[in-house]
Amino acid sequence: MTDYLRSSRVALALASPEHDNELLLVNDRFCALTGFVSDEVIGRNCRFLQRDADNPEARARIHRFLEEERDPSVRTEIVNFRKDGTPFVNLLFMSKLKTRNGAPRMLFASQFDISRSRPEMLADYDEKLAQTLRNMAPILSESGIIMEGSLMTIANSASTIAQAKLLLSTLDDTAPLA
């Protein structure tokens, strides 16, 4: 499974379902998106990517996902920052990976920069993510792991890009002048 995740064409991360949800694995696409190398992020919670951004709706959705057994997955836009300080709107998808007896094993996450995306790019990402999830199902099953949630959480929407552009414009308006 690790090899498959590392070679995926979408930005992916695995995190612990316990303690502070520390990152266990990130792939090269995640590193390219954020500007961080894996050694800089492994063992940390992804919230450091938010810096001081105000993400109340996204944070509430993520917390509900983490705390509620009946929320198997979440998809939300959240403002993140690259290592160089550049803000971007991250379309975050998270799902719970559990053992067959229901014990949490890991958290699966995918990230996509929708800040300046076009609808066809989001559609391509959605298809790549859906294919990744379909391909992971048998690999996970062999390890006795089940991915909760469904592909229904992945829904292409032009409104998602419009919301991201609005979020980014508010960031651009409040960015300090050099």
Automatic annotation (TrEMBL):
Entries under PANTHER family matching the protein: PROTEIN TWIN LOV 1
Residues in PAS domain copies: 18-69
Taxonomic superkingdom: Bacteria
Gene3D superfamilies assigned: PAS domain
Claim: Flavoprotein is one of the keywords in the record: yes
Database matches in CDD domains: PAS
Alphabetic keyword roster: Chromophore, Flavoprotein, FMN
Protein name: PAS domain-containing protein
